[in-house]
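Continuing the batch. This is chain 6 of the set; chains 1 through 5 are on the previous pages. Same settings as before, nothing changed between runs. Recording input and output for traceability.
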Amino acid sequence: MSFLVPFLAGTATGILSAFGIGGGSLLLIYLTAFAGVPQHQAQGINLLYFLPAAAAALPSHRKNGLLEKHTILPAVIAGLTAAALTAWVSNGLDTHLLQKLFGLFLLCVGLRELFRKEPKP
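Output for chain 6:
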């Protein structure tokens, strides 16, 4: 039974990640709120989880023409730089502060989605 719940959480968030919904954020919530994993460790698990999940979804997105080739290289360079910098910064932060910042981030994203208006065609 101890293997089943994390397996199901990983499966569900993997499916959501493939749709581009942000399964990694949901995995962080599961790991920290329900599995009792410390925030720093949950972030590391999430990073390792993301690589195969993204690699599995990429061929389908490519096949369906959902990749904008002119934005890939700048986005990858910026993403790698930002990830390295914020990983370095987050290691110096207190775990409780990091949890509060992550919660604030989720709250902002949730409010944005809740009150966002669909663009008219």
